[in-house]
Amino acid sequence: MPVAMAGGSSGGGGGQVLDCRSFWKAGAYEAPAAPTHEFQDALETGDFDRARVHPKFLHTNATSHKWAFGAIAELLDNAVDEINNGATFIKVDKSINLKDNSPMLLFQDDGGGMDPEGVRRCMSLGFSTKKSKNLIGQYGNGFKTSTMRLGADAIVFTRAIRGSNVTLSIGLLSYTFLRRTMKDDIVVPMLDFKIQDGDIVPLVYGSQGDWDSSLKIILDWSPFSSKEELLQQFQDVGSHGTKVVVYNLWMNDDGLLELDFEDDDEDILLRDQGSGGATKGQKEIVQQHISHRLRFSLRAYTSILYLKKFDNFRIILRGKAVEQICITDELKFKKVVTYKPQAAHDSQVVPVKVDVGFAKEAPILGIFGMNVYHKNRLIMPFWKVLQEGSSRGRSVVGVLEANFIEPAHDKQDFERTPLFIRLEAKLRQIIVDFWKEKCHLIGYQPTDPHLRSQYKATLKDSGGPAQVHHKASSARRTRGLSSNLLPETYDDIAVVGLANNGSHLQSSGQAEENNMELEGLDEDLVEFGSGVLDSNFIEKLSEENIALFSR
């Protein structure tokens, strides 16, 4: 690459699109066999020694990303890896293709940029120079899979300073071009320029004819109509950095863009993401929780994408910086557990710290799961190592950085190795142990016999169920809290039923239909008809909840 092969009709650029705009169907086409004379020509020119990669592979390769946000995260990783080269931001925004007025997805950073050799490595398949233990990218495949998962075409603009040389490079990875011109090999046209005496002049590595041919392909099949328009894209790049524009974005089966730019001017949303099976009363809180919103909100997903908060780097989504969230800061009754992986005998084993606690919404919502990071990057958010349906482990959330296992190529899962299976078993045990030790702190019956005895003694001293009901009602009047310690802010959702035997606490005047049953809690929740925690504990827990919800 590049190969000077200018085919197809001109003038369409971004206006030339595939017949099928659905990603999952775009690879289903019959590829024509290459004419015999092409192999003969290749043999005579010496090009026969080079293995060919069919354009279908671009699509097949991109199917490793089942989730569009996973593809976006790959491009964010590239910018984060550039922090070592001085990068301070990555911009993600919507742009407009002036040829057909269609939306495009823009990524721009101020990292070190790529010189002509570097951009060719980036556009090649399976080539990576990232060998540092601290860098996220390692397979040399992320750029190709991510851009082709988001849209049919991508164009790269990059500017770099290497010593006294300042270079500007442009590369086009166009599935539309390859398909529409019936290519049987991946052709990536490239253009290079250099700064000479203050002027931008072409940098020709092959022949002038090859350079001109690459320019023609780029102008015919990109959103830009002239060399001047191409060079204008460098005006806001600065002295060094990279800009990636993905266009001809994929659509869903209804003919709508997979990415939604319209519903929120400060976010990019995913269509076709349901809200799950929450009850009517829970729905409002569930939809606002990060574990739900990350599935369809890019802002929510990127807020927890990196474990450590950046000191001098920002992710700017549609003009507004993303506020990073540390999941461990959102937990209550936290505990730190140390896990020592059983790695190979000849490998250095580093103990892993596992932060575990209850979600601040506990026990109202059954949000639970482990958030597993690798080299600072989130791989598995809210991973449910315990089966759903049981109250055991409910509302328990954990965080760990598992650098001792390798992620899958799409960085949304881990390779299913024996080491990973042992980790899964250990995390399951950590959650169960934490639950047994702490579940009474969020209103469940203690599992420990000693705590259970104290619990019964508290009930006896309280004067029975009637006195319990009076205390709870009094707490609600004086503190604005229901028996489950929800603040008045959520009164419109309902008061939570906490009894097993048909009775449940209600606010005076609250309609029957506004009661919200806690699904899956019946077997272990504290029953107001048969027991309650003492008043000192309720006071402490009330203050804890007020502080959390105020923050």
TrEMBL record:
GO biological process: chromatin organization; DNA repair; positive regulation of defense response; regulatory ncRNA-mediated gene silencing
InterPro entries: HATPase_C_sf, MORC_ATPase, Morc_S5
One Gene Ontology CC term in the entry: nucleus
MF-aspect GO terms: ATP binding; ATP hydrolysis activity; endonuclease activity
Cellular location(s): Nucleus
Record carries keyword Signal: no
Subunit organization: Homodimer.
Record protein name field: Morc S5 domain-containing protein
Native species: Panicum virgatum
